[in-house]
Design brief:
With about 375 residues, this protein is of the alpha+beta class. Helices cover about 60% and strands about 10% of the residues. It folds into three domains: about 100 residues, no CATH class; about 50 residues, no CATH class; about 200 residues, 3-Layer(aba) Sandwich (Glutaredoxin). It contains 14 helices and nine strands.
């Protein structure tokens, strides 16, 4: 292990030696001589051959030569300490290399260098993570998860190279982003390809992504289906306050539109999500943050007032209130969860399906 540890350390200091050797060539020549000897030792280790003992002794002697003369009784314990330190250096180096490889593979296959928490990866697009809070896991669980993440990465590789047809992943009833409903001067191009936009009502990255899509003309060039998915971190517990409530009202409104001819559709679900993501209260607070700060009863009252603002009658508001508690909406949410986790295999949202590709994280203009 001393040979391998010495090779790692020599490799790390090589860049500094290269700079110094510009001015003092003898240092560079001496370094190369030792490095060549170290590489020969490591090469033998890789081939499961015995390393040259003289190199190992050279390393130890270089570290202990001053101790031998002054404190000979410390030579044995320090020699053992060098061996232990060598094992630690090799282990840490191997772990660092594996972690780097895992992060790069994860970034390519899943769009994030952190499988469980995409939001913590500065190299990936901004996103809200799916799954449990990592801080609540024990060291043993985190260690076990480090190994199981390899399985997640390799299972995601086929998804990275496959062709994604958005129409294969619809969950009925589907809500289309009708630009003419939001802005009478804009309209989605005829025969534009379909896209799916997976969002959580409480996710700030989803809000920014939606705004970018609006301002960049994405909705003019894609018939975009909103798939609202409240992130569930454990059974019955959600990542963002009131997200499941907004999702239920969204799908209840979609059920109300289902079966209606275009002229009779109210598009209440689309208008609700659009206000949540793009508008502010009279006090200048973003509606997404405002709704999250309310109790469930207060949030219900707020959403009902929005429906009235959008032109819904009291009868329609009552019907949506009934539907949001219904088994129909519950089943839609379960189908959405199954589609998101088991068919589309996402680790964070927003996630978009368009142009036959799966795009992970924040949509950027």
């Amino acid at each position: 292990m001393v040979c391998i540890a010495a090779f790692i350390v020599l490799g790390l200091i090589g860049i500094f030696v290269a700079i110094i050797s510009i001015f003092k060539r003898e240092i560079g020549r001496a370094y190369l001589k030792v490095m060549k000897k170290s590489w020969g030792c490591v090469g033998k280790k890789v081939r499961l051959q015995k390393c040259d003992t003289n190199f190992k002794d050279d390393v130890k002697n270089a570290l202990l030569k001053k101790v031998i003369l002054k404190h000979p009784n410390l030579v044995t314990p320090l020699s053992v300490l060098i061996e232990i330190s060598s094992i630690i250096i090799v282990f840490v180096f191997a772990w660092a290399v594996l972690t780097s490889i895992k992060s790069m593979l994860s970034l390519w296959s899943l769009g994030t260098c952190n499988v469980d928490r995409p939001a913590s990866c500065t190299l990936s697009s901004e996103a809200c993570s799916l799954g449990d809070d990592e801080s609540e896991k024990s060291l043993l669980e985190k260690t076990g998860r480090w190994f199981t993440e390899w399985g997640d990465i390799f299972s995601a590789i086929p998804d990275r190279i496959k062709s994604w047809n958005a129409e294969e992943y619809f969950v009925e009833p589907k809500t289309l982003v009708e630009l003419s409903v939001l802005d009478s001067e804009k309209k989605t191009a005829e025969n534009a390809p379909y896209a799916i936009d997976i969002v959580d009502p409480g996710c700030s990255a989803c809000m920014m992504s939606y705004r970018n899509q609006l301002s960049s003309g994405f909705f003019e060039n894609h018939r975009t289906i909103l798939m609202v998915y409240p992130i569930e971190i454990s059974e019955g517990n959600y990542k963002f306050p009131n997200s499941p409530l907004v999702a239920r009202y969204f799908y209840a409104s979609a059920l109300l539109d289902e079966g209606e001819v275009e002229e009779n559709k109210l598009h209440l679900g689309l208008k609700l999500m659009n206000r949540l993501f793009t508008e502010k209260t009279e006090d200048g607070v973003i509606y997404q943050s405002y709704v999250a700060s309310l109790s469930e009863d207060e949030a219900k009252a707020e959403l009902k007032s929005w429906l009235r603002d959008f032109g819904a009658t009291e009868e329609v508001v009552s019907e949506i209130s009934r539907l949001e508690k219904s088994d129909e909406v519950k089943q839609i949410l379960e189908k959405t969860k199954d589609m998101v986790t088991n068919s589309i295999h996402i680790k964070g949202i927003p996630t978009l399906l368009y142009d036959n590709k799966k795009h992970l994280g924040l949509y950027e203009e």
